[in-house]
């Protein structure tokens, strides 16, 4: 990159001089999802400098948490990353339960694990569809949405919501599973698994897709460490870190034989896509395994009876979960009130997007779209 | 998956051909989508579509309005005194609901109001076709909220391993208590039917 910069300055004054141009991409731009704004400094087609400017969708979630009780927080928390609502809720209830010293019923633990994995599939399918779309391949998103619909249907049946499930409660889940839901969920998992090959076949081996993504936007392990990048993006660069295995929560500790932490080596756009694809398969396996376990469990409650006013004892804790997009952490400080004194939110996309500053310079504008899409972020998760 | 990739890389253009084969396969299979207004979607009973108000159950206790995370429920009520039912008795006061409105342009569809209502005056209905041209028309007054009542689906049966719903066990307990009281009195009065699972359990 350094050499290219030198080349540019040498060009000045020769008659073919180009001036750096500042290009704003976003906050409302079809190439970005949502309201992410990038300020690019361009030299011709080449990106010299890139600065992600965030905050257009800042909703003050952390401040709002402080004036909401723990049930209301669930409603707010599942919205910052609208594609992984269940996983977001999970962190809040895990933190509160840990502070309260609550033992969650075993059926709730397995049901949560299963729903979290189904949520992961939903999230990944979205990106498996939208990423090719950003590169100009329109068809995969239709297939991805067909599969999403299949899973959303079972999620809607159990929780009543299609995106904002609002199904976790401190001490378990809101309601028990409807009769026959497990069979329908398993049928949906099988159907999706059977048709995943469509998405795989239509885009994964596509030469144009390879040309656009291979070797583009290579993320190094050092950059990942420096910026706190996590999730499938980090694993695609060979950073073998997954909280489901490395700090097991819910029932992941018992799912060691099914859970496969997918890692890549290249760290380029293609590797990130591949990582997401492989992880979707694994999540389907995990969800199926949870369904089997759930069916074998003896009858029992799915939540605990809570007092009318739930107060979390004084203290602090940090609960982190492996969200579909990366590490999602809640730092909960309570002073014994029914609302938290402070609830700090560490969201995956916020950290993941910062590395664009390092990733984009030296690339072409056309590659920017490929890189941006492969970072798998949700703007709400950045701005909170 | 890796071995599959290697296979794909073998012939140039094979990826495109494979993609086209998938496209063709999907072209000849029937469509997965439905023509919405002609074919209404099948919605699960738990679907959170719209909130219905069973006005008779509401005591205007304001719990829902207070618990609502974004305060989109408006309740006005006044107290009315009812003359003593028996001569010499104490006169009673009771809340009369004047206004109950939910602003669906603010509602976040979390269902907390329904969860906290101690008298089951609020219920979810899967109906969703109430879009408006003007945002202000999304404010549903109690008449409109009452219209949704007939679309409330019965609650779903639970999984075999699930615990009994609290309402049923409570009603059974209440019924058993009543029965015991009746037996103890040893009066040949007509046995009361077991209490209804919803609401009427005292």
TrEMBL record, chain A:
Catalyzed reactions per annotation:
a quinone + NADH + 5 H(+)(in) = a quinol + NAD(+) + 4 H(+)(out)
Q: What class of enzyme is it?
A: translocase
Q: What is its EC number?
A: 7.1.1.-
What is the topology of this protein in the membrane according to its UniProt annotation? Peripheral membrane protein
Q: Which residues form the NADH-quinone oxidoreductase subunit D domain?
A: 135-305, 310-384
Keywords noted in UniProt? Cell membrane, Membrane, NAD, Oxidoreductase, Quinone, Translocase, Transport
What is the annotated localization of this protein? Cell membrane
GO molecular function terms here?
NAD binding; NADH dehydrogenase (quinone) (non-electrogenic) activity; quinone binding
Pfam families to which the protein is assigned, alphabetical: Complex1_49kDa
Q: Return the GO cellular component terms, semicolon-separated.
A: plasma membrane
What HAMAP family would the database entry show?
NDH1_NuoD (MF_01358)
Q: Which family does it belong to?
A: Belongs to the complex I 49 kDa subunit family.
What does the record give as the function of this protein?
NDH-1 shuttles electrons from NADH, via FMN and iron-sulfur (Fe-S) centers, to quinones in the respiratory chain. The immediate electron acceptor for the enzyme in this species is believed to be a menaquinone. Couples the redox reaction to proton translocation (for every two electrons transferred, four hydrogen ions are translocated across the cytoplasmic membrane), and thus conserves the redox energy in a proton gradient.
Q: Which PANTHER family match?
A: NADH DEHYDROGENASE [UBIQUINONE] IRON-SULFUR PROTEIN 2, MITOCHONDRIAL (PTHR11993:SF10), NADH-UBIQUINONE OXIDOREDUCTASE 49 KDA SUBUNIT (PTHR11993)
Assembly: NDH-1 is composed of 14 different subunits. Subunits NuoB, C, D, E, F, and G constitute the peripheral sector of the complex.
What is the protein's given name? NADH-quinone oxidoreductase subunit D
Q: Supply the gene name.
A: nuoD
TrEMBL record, chain B:
Chain residues that bind [4Fe-4S] cluster 1: 58, 61, 64, 117
List of residues binding [4Fe-4S] cluster 2: 68, 107, 110, 113
Top-level enzyme category = translocase
Q: What is its membrane topology?
A: Peripheral membrane protein
Q: Which reaction does it catalyse?
A: a quinone + NADH + 5 H(+)(in) = a quinol + NAD(+) + 4 H(+)(out)
Names of required cofactors: [4Fe-4S] cluster
Q: Which Pfam families match?
A: Fer4, Fer4_4
Return the PROSITE patterns for the record. 4FE4S_FER_1, 4FE4S_FER_2
Q: How is the cofactor bound?
A: Binds 2 [4Fe-4S] clusters per subunit.
- What's its EC? 7.1.1.-
Q: Name one GO molecular function term.
A: iron ion binding
What compartments host this protein? Cell membrane
Q: Which stretches does the entry tag as region Disordered? A: 172-202
What InterPro entries has UniProt attached to this entry?
A: 4Fe4S_Fe-S-bd, 4Fe4S_Fe_S_CS, NADH_quinone_OxRdtase_chainI
Which intervals carry biased composition (Low complexity)?
Answer: 172-189
Q: Which UniProt keywords apply?
A: 4Fe-4S, Cell membrane, Iron, Iron-sulfur, Membrane, Metal-binding, NAD, Quinone, Repeat, Translocase, Ubiquinone
Q: Where is the 4Fe-4S ferredoxin-type domain?
A: 49-78, 98-127
What is this protein's function per UniProt? NDH-1 shuttles electrons from NADH, via FMN and iron-sulfur (Fe-S) centers, to quinones in the respiratory chain. The immediate electron acceptor for the enzyme in this species is believed to be ubiquinone. Couples the redox reaction to proton translocation (for every two electrons transferred, four hydrogen ions are translocated across the cytoplasmic membrane), and thus conserves the redox energy in a proton gradient.
Which family does the record claim for this protein? Belongs to the complex I 23 kDa subunit family.
Query: Which HAMAP family does the record associate with it?
Result: NDH1_NuoI (MF_01351)
**Description of how the protein assembles with itself and partners:** NDH-1 is composed of 14 different subunits. Subunits NuoA, H, J, K, L, M, N constitute the membrane sector of the complex.
PANTHER family per UniProt: NADH DEHYDROGENASE UBIQUINONE IRON-SULFUR PROTEIN 8, MITOCHONDRIAL, NADH-QUINONE OXIDOREDUCTASE SUBUNIT I 2
Q: What is this protein called?
A: NADH-quinone oxidoreductase subunit I
Recorded source organism is Actinospica acidithermotolerans
Q: Which gene encodes it?
A: nuoI
